[in-house]
Amino acid sequence: xxxxxxxxxxxxxxxxxxxxxxxxxxxxxxxxxxxxxxxxxxxxxxxxxxxxxxxxxxxxxxxxxxxxxxxxxxxxxxxxxxxxxxxxxxxxxxxxxxxxxxxxxxxxxxxxxxxxxxxxxxxxxxxxxxxxxxxxxxxxxxxxxxxxxxxxxxxxxxxxxxxxxxxxxxxxxxxxxxxxxxxxxxxxxxxxxxxxxxxxxxxxxxxxxxxxxxxxxxxxxxxxxxxxxxxxxxxxxxxxxxxxxxxxxxxxxxxxxxxxxxxxxxxxxxxxxxxxxxxxxxxxxxxxxxxxxxxxxxxxxxxxxxxxxxxxxxxxxxxxxxxxxxxxxxxxxxxxxxxxxxxxxxxxxxxxxxxxxxxxxxxxxxxxxxxxxxxxxxxxxxxxxxxxxxxxxxxxxxxxxxxxxxxxxxxxxxxxxxxxxxxxxxxxxxxxxxxxxxxxxxxxxxxxxxxxxxxxxxxxxxxxxxxxxxxxxxxxxxxxxxxxxxxxxxxxxxxxxxxxxxxxxxxxxxxxxxxxxxxxxxxxxxxxxxxxxxxxxxxxxxxxxxxxxxxxxxxxxxxxxxxxxxxxxxxxxxxxxxxxxxxxxxxxxxxxxxxxxxxxxxxxxxxxxxxxxxxx
Length: 616
Fold this sequence. Notes:
Strands 3, 4, 5, 7, 10 and 12 form a six-stranded antiparallel beta sheet that branches. This protein has a four-stranded antiparallel beta sheet with strand order 6-11-8-9, with no helix packed on it. The N terminus is likely disordered. The chain is globular, with a radius of gyration of 27 Å. It is an alpha+beta fold. Strand 1 and strand 2 form a beta hairpin.
């Protein structure tokens, strides 16, 4: 039986849309300088989007148009991670699905650019405006199909409305719709929501149109993110019972034309990716992810779900409603419980097995965004079947608080208050519910993960402890430890208001390169002589060519977070995959830049090189 209050879900959609448009306009499009839209395409989205101008404007499978001076300043939208070299040629690392989803809006942007006389480069504001519009359209489509899914479970309109608020405002989907609109997640969310609805309807009604549309949607899902083929494993749950699942399965063969049509739709759309591979490299298939993959023998399940670095339930706490939803399923429909739990565990296992379990820079555990329509089903069932009005009111109140927390965290991540990759409990506690400017960009980074095993290079490690000269290290600013004991020995490296730089590690690449991919690891102990002295200090790893021209410059914040001067020695550690273009005449340099000329000590400053070896 449905609840009263028809129309509440529509009102929720309007509220979610208004808040999302507000976020998109003020915190992305306008930004702080009026040109925030210029950063709309960043990170991985550079690769997702690049297919469109490369194919439709420049006919350039090598993406050389980024370096053509005639195309203005679009080189900022090129990433070194965009192209992956393979035995069959260089190809775009990312699959073409997002570009396919954006294509109609790209053509609208191109038309608008012609009308308003903006550059037809693919990167002027009319194109980006249409990317933002596309993101909002698919966001609404995903919520629309989520609403339709929940109606098939006899969920009342008031509960559906609240679930839509939870999904649209209480998760990181808001961020990946309004701020990083060209990332894949909002498109996967929309596609999976639609696929789940059509597969649910096929199981219940056995209509060929549901099956054919489902086949086309599944192809788009794979085209956007291949691993999301896993979504087919939710179909047994959608059937609701073994009897219905069996009937749906048998119908595929009773009416094979349905199945043939669905397979044809799937293959026709997936062929787009093979065509793009061929267009770029001349080969119909290449592995475009390079040296990346899954480590199924070591899934990081606890970290993925509960760590303060990127834990799903830490940064999207409304999803805790999955738990009472599963309890409800267990009590009322054992089949649904088993089918749903099996699918959920499989998704968690696969997501947790990716070599970079926290998926690089990003807000929260973003790989789960794609499945939010599935994850919200048990949450809706739990809310719908709370019998006590008092209990329901308390639960709705608590969830409203969690939605508010999520909105604040979306804002905090947008303005670099929450670190994109290196959070922990102490940092989380320091910035929890903080929005002020003084909390921006104050959290330090961490070591870079590698897909492989790190093997130290023998004799390629040097520690400057200040006690005696050491190869490749200069010896400036070494003083006796007087104010407080050194971390080791009797000397420290001193930084004061009169010196911006201290000793530097400087080595020719010929002294450490091996022809293999290398990793540079740096550790240093630090002690502050004044409050927050190390907050602005940076550890710099830079690479210069033989003429002194800078090739690479990597800054990393020395302190993990602002701290009081308490005479405690603390250790910071950094790790960096060295660029592959380093040659023997290049010079690598490591040093600390005391930007604000504050007072602090360093000790046991260590630089070492390791070889990245593939997994067996």
